[in-house]
Design brief:
The chain is mainly α. The protein has one domain. The chain is built from six helices and no strands. The longest helix is centred in the N-terminal third of the chain and has 17 residues.
C-alpha cells in the first residue's frame, strides 16, 4: 500500500502557492483515485481534504477538520491551517515562528470567521 494520502493534500497546497493549478488538480485526481482503489478512512479523508484545499471552501475545510474521526492532531492542525484567511483567499499557513500556539490561535480565528465556535 502506498502512502500517497500522507502527502497529496500538501502537494495541492504547495502547487496552489506556486501557483500551478494544473499540478494541484492532478494531485486531487490522484488522491481521489487512491481513495476509490483502496477506501480506508484516511485515504477518503485525504481525497476530501485535497479537493477542499483546491476549492478554497473555508466552511467545508473546518467541517472536515472538526468531524473526521480518523484524524490525529497533526492532520487536524494542518487542515485548520489550510482554511483561507477570508481576505485574500490564501491559506493561513506560512506564519513563520508562531509554532503550535500560533496555529491554534489561527485555527480558532478561522472557525470564528466561518461562523463556528
Amino acid at each position: 500500500m502506498q502512502a500517497h494520502h500522507l502527502w497529496l493534500p500538501e502537494l495541492v497546497r504547495l502547487a496552489l502557492a506556486v501557483p500551478d493549478r494544473d499540478l494541484a488538480c492532478a494531485a486531487v485526481a490522484a488522491a481521489q483515485a487512491d481513495a476509490a482503489a483502496e477506501p480506508p478512512p484516511m485515504r477518503i479523508y485525504a481525497a476530501r481534504r485535497a479537493r477542499e484545499i483546491l476549492d478554497g471552501d473555508a466552511a467545508t475545510l473546518l467541517s472536515t477538520a472538526d468531524s473526521a474521526q480518523v484524524l490525529g492532531p497533526l492532520d487536524r492542525g494542518q487542515t485548520y491551517e489550510e482554511v483561507p484567511d477570508g481576505t485574500s483567499g490564501a491559506p493561513t499557513r506560512g506564519f513563520v515562528g508562531t509554532g503550535y500556539a500560533g496555529a491554534r490561535g489561527r485555527s480558532a480565528d478561522n472557525r470564528r470567521r466561518a461562523g463556528r465556535r
